[in-house]
Amino acid sequence: MNRLTLLKRKSTLSWVILGSFFTTALVANPPLPDLDRDGIANIIDPDVDNDGLPNRIDRNIDGGIARTGPLRGRQIGDALLNNSPAELDMDADGLPDQSPQETDIDGDGLADGAKGEFDTDGDGVANGLDGDVDGDNIGNLPDKDFDGTGLNEDIFFENGNPSAYLDDAEAADVIRQVEAELRRVLRIGPNDRGLRVRVSNRPLAGMQCGVWRYFSSDHMQAWANWCYPDGDLTQLKAFVQYEYTGPFSGNMDDYVNPANYGVSEESRLFAQYPRGPFTFVNWLPGAPVSFYYTAPNQEATGLPPPIAALTVALGSRPNFWNSGEAFSGDIAPTFASLQPVIDLQRTLFRVTRSANGLAEARLLR
Questions:
Q1: Are residues 129 and 199 both part of a single domain?
Q2: Which of 158, 267, 289, 306 pairs with 223 at a CA distance of 20 to 30 A?
Q3: Is 310 domain-assigned?
Q4: Are 140 and 275 within 8 A, CB to CB?
């Protein structure tokens, strides 16, 4: 006797009770939205509109022509691209995209802040290359909430701790003086508004410290710590690394105490193209300015790193070296200005964007 025959012989009473149970359950817990009616709720459906494109690379997650399922061949959902100002719920899960409860804006099953999430807004452009990561039609740089988490903060200067720096108005005199000196050192013109300076509210003993950041007009960027002895701005160091000089006691209070940190001999600058990986730039007086760069990891971006293209673009630099996805070499004989660093970022952006643009096109084909 097969399974179907056994099921048919179940008592009528059992089916009535079971049916009553499901009816009650459906009333108490109405079914979740299922745009393509494939039996998988939008909130966990890897292809909400069944158009054959996974949410993570679909430029319109909740609208298209269904290629499979009960609505095959029919246009379903909307015609709004993910980054359209009118698109308020791109994965059709019932949660508005800037809602604090929306933790998976593109409905691909990966939380927006997860290590493997490489396309938060599902527009087919990896976060590292996307000028608008959260798809709210506001570019990352002017967007105070670039990743759609609902946190309104300056990520390069606060890092989740709004009390790390003095209020700009409170530190206006120091900012004005440090900015003037940095413009001289970095050779940034007086009319270039890309430079910003902040002052730490936890200065090291006898030192005035802070952070500076520079944005070029095309969104390349560089930043570093600055520091000088109190009252002697002529001793300003524009590229500062701090090192722990306190006891290795295992007591957390020791490690968060500013008195247990000092300025190291190493000088380091950080640079980054729009939402790309960091480039470390070492600068020591009298030594060549050198860089260290790691290409975007495929696990994080979903796209193969353009190793060959980067080797061609960077290979002519002095002391060039690469091993796998890591590249290093000299930028300039001495640090005469910030421009060579910004130009390096433009090269990295151009090569990576060009290579990954082709990969994106293949994914969408």
A1: no
A2: 306
A3: yes
A4: yes
> Which residues make beta-bridge pairs with 328?
292, 321
How many separate domains does the chain show? 2
Helix (H, G, I), strand (E, B) or coil at 208: strand
* Burial track 106-141 (b if 16+ CB lie within 10 A, e otherwise): bbbbbebeeeebbbbbbbbbbbbbbebbbbbebebe
Contacts of 267 (CB under 8 A, 6+ apart): 237, 239, 240, 241, 282, 283, 284
Residues near 62 by beta carbon (within 8 Å), at least 6 away in sequence:
35, 42, 48, 49, 77, 78, 89, 90, 91, 92
- CA separation, residue 220 to residues 104, 118, 333 (Å): 28, 20, 22
- Is residue 228 located within the same domain as residue 343? yes
SS3 169: coil
Q: What whole-number distance in Å separates Cα of residue 238 and Cα of residue 216?
A: 18
- Report the predicted TM-score, pTM, of the whole model to 2 decimal places: 0.57
By the 8 A CB rule, do 88 and 82 touch? Answer: no
